[in-house]
Design a protein that fits this description.
four-stranded parallel beta sheet, Rossmann fold, globular, 328 residues, 48% helix, single chain, mainly alpha
Length: 328
């Protein structure tokens, strides 16, 4: 057992009853583990289907996750929330709205928990790419305790982690990563539609932000959302290729929607997890349907066409072949 992984964090702030309960829980659970936690991180730019994959992965392989209850009420002491989750069997529902789920025990993005460990702010690619000073022991102990509690690695789905791959891969040498991608045209259109719906403005950013956000703010919204997808993809690809070799898999949203069982079977083999008997079938929603003004969609298509070579890696190969733009 590594000294860092096995170290139960110390907190100099006054402890209340929940803090004490977590300290006791961490102490007992961490002591039972002999290996680094094999936490599973789902990485994906906004509007790429990461929530659907998250739900499917946890349901199909009975993997633990940060539930809304834990995120909303135990962000400071997530191990306590996870222990409560363990006592309440839940059937995961395939429903969400812009990454948010409804119900105390449904999978959460874990934003409050992750902010406790990594902070926030923008551009998040620069200011929130590493663990906060003094928080690594609590982070590692919590992931270790979760694995001991459930007998399976915790799954974390949070877009901000796309800019943390270097740190995560180094701090967690047994962690594995699943990168879900989506054709940039569809993802960008969905992202712009989400801005209108959730922010009331085409210029208000959703989720994490790339390091060049101030530069991107100066271009039209249709170009912004395309460039945002591109920046996320560069960050994830660079992090995985340079720091997590052999520990990641790529999934295209289009392929997952087309044949979820085959994609999940491949991921199950990668994660070495058996399918749970009686797991519910994946429920695919209206993939690709977005409520977006026609002129915005046309502007996104035009921007992609004008910079086709630069964005070629952000397009789904099958989609490009169908459009006659991909030769191999």
């Amino acid at each position: 057992m590594s000294a860092m992984r096995g170290r139960v964090p110390e907190d100099t702030a006054p402890m209340n009853g929940v803090d004490q309960a977590e300290a006791t829980l961490l102490q007992s659970l961490v002591a039972t583990q002999d290996a680094s936690p094999a936490t599973i991180f789902i990485l994906g730019a906004p509007r790429t289907g990461s929530t659907l994959l998250y739900q499917a992965l946890c349901s199909r392989f009975s993997l633990p996750y940060i539930a809304n209850l834990t995120n909303d009420h135990f962000a400071r002491t997530p191990a306590v929330g996870l222990a409560i989750q363990k006592a309440v069997p839940v059937r995961i529902r395939y429903a969400s709205q812009y990454g948010k789920t409804d119900g105390p025990f449904q999978p959460s993005e874990g934003s409050a928990v992750m902010t406790r460990w990594f902070g926030g702010g923008h551009p998040s690619a620069l200011v929130s790419a590493r663990i906060l000073e003094g928080m690594e022991p609590h982070f590692l102990a919590t992931l270790t305790a979760a694995e001991a509690l459930f007998g399976a690695p915790l799954v974390i789905k949070n877009a901000w982690n796309c800019f943390r791959v270097r740190y995560l891969a180094k701090a967690l040498p047994s962690a594995r990563f699943i990168w879900i991608r989506r054709d940039a045209a569809d993802a960008a259109k969905s992202d712009l539609a989400a801005r209108y719906r959730t922010k009331g403005s085409a210029r208000e950013w959703n989720s994490a932000t790339p390091g060049n956000i101030e530069e991107l703010r100066r271009i039209p919204p249709a170009a912004q959302v395309v460039e945002n997808q591109h920046e996320f993809n560069i960050a994830v690809a660079g992090g995985l290729n340079h720091h997590a070799e052999g520990r990641w898999r790529e999934v295209w949203y289009e392929d997952f929607c087309g044949d979820p069982d085959t994609v999940l079977a491949d991921l199950g083999a990668f994660l070495e997890r058996p399918t749970v008997q009686g797991a519910s079938a994946v429920e695919i929603g209206r993939a690709g349907d977005v409520d977006l003004p026609a002129e915005d969609g046309e502007a996104i298509d035009r921007y992609l066409a004008e910079h086709a070579e630069r964005f070629s890696a952000d397009r789904h190969p099958g989609r490009m072949r169908a459009e006659g733009k991909w030769n191999s």
